């Protein structure tokens, strides 16, 4: 979920920030 502050490393499914 992109609701919390998560590192782009852990954020692999949130394309809103930056898909790894």
Based on DSSP secondary structure assignment, what is the total number of beta strands?
0
Radius of gyration over C-alpha positions, nearest whole angstrom? 7 Å
Report the sheet with the most strands, covering strand number, pairing sense and barrel closure: none
Alpha-carbon distance between the two ends: 15 Å
Strand content: under 5%
Kindly describe this structure:
It is flat, with a radius of gyration of 7 Å. The chain contains no helices and no strands. By secondary structure, the chain is largely without helices or strands.
In a nutshell, what does this entry contain?
The protein is low in regular secondary structure.
Structure characteristics:
0% strand, 20 residues, little secondary structure
